[in-house]
Amino acid sequence: MLQIESSGGGAGLAAVRNSNNVSGPSLDFGKSRGYPNTIVQSGDKLGVINFCGADGTNLETVGAQIVGEVDGTPGADDMPGRLIFKTTADGASSSTEHVRITSGGQVLINQTSYNTFVDGAGYSQTPLLQVVSNDNISSMISLKYNSGAGAVNRRATFAFVRTADGTAVSNNSVLGEVLFMGEGNSTLEKAASIRAEVDGTPGTNDMPGRLIFSTSLNDADSPTERVRILSGGEFYVGVQTFYASHPEFAVNVGPSNLHGVTIHSDTAENDGDLAGLAF
């Protein structure tokens, strides 16, 4: 065991490689279950970095920790691994896992195993980023842009991007979807979605798009399209096909008790009066 201790600024460890190539110095951790090369098992720790601070009694309390572990069944020239990042909460004496990067590249925040979901098209998806909150005060993701003296049209952006390996995406390609789900008897069910699709033939400096808003009926978990906004601004309610007359606004009556369009005036002096069209 090597220990470096100093009361000044000399408590450090440096590794320098002076070679005319792309390689740099390294710090290697190795683990076996017996000399010389007894194979390790899934969950074995391959290496640990502890960050400790004096607590008035000793230097043994860990404030943060980085752990490398085996993340699957290893074999000859096969060593699946994961990284685990832990921090110690105020008032605690041991660290708690908060971030995990799995062997498959999934980044898990506040959970130790990844989840698989069924998307709006019915495909199983294992998201590369999964965030879990177990309380009511941290269940939000925020993008903040501190503009300072930046231009007024600059902004924080969350982007959905679809590529086609250097070629143009095709008409009707789904560019992105926001899916709203809720737990129903231990399973996640789909309640609503907002989807963006290509709405025509795209090309250089040309990407026509449409938005589709869908909701699930009572006793159902498959969202049905309710509203469609086309690339030209046409607003369709309950209509998926493009009318030959190209109306800006269209409503499909359908086989239900919901018919027509009502414009309602809800002012203080005329509360409940109807204004405009009613069918």
List the helices and strands and how they pair.
Elements: E1 45-52, E2 62-70, E3 81-87, E4 96-101, E5 107-109, E6 117-118, E7 124-125, E8 129-131, E9 174-184, E10 187-198, E11 209-215, E12 224-229, E13 235-237, E14 249-251
Parallel strand pairs: 5-8, 13-14
Antiparallel strand pairs: 1-2, 2-3, 3-4, 4-5, 6-7, 9-10, 10-11, 11-12, 12-13
Keywords:
14 strands; six-stranded mixed β-sheet; mainly beta; 279 residues
Describe it for me?
By secondary structure, the chain is mainly beta. It is built from no helices and 14 strands. It has strands at 45-52, 62-70, 81-87, 96-101, 107-109, 117-118, 124-125, 129-131, 174-184, 187-198, 209-215, 224-229, 235-237, 249-251. The strands form three sheets. The protein has a six-stranded mixed sheet, with no helix packed on it. Strands 9-10-11-12-13-14 form a six-stranded mixed sheet, with no helix packed on it. β12 (224-229) and β13 (235-237) form a beta hairpin.
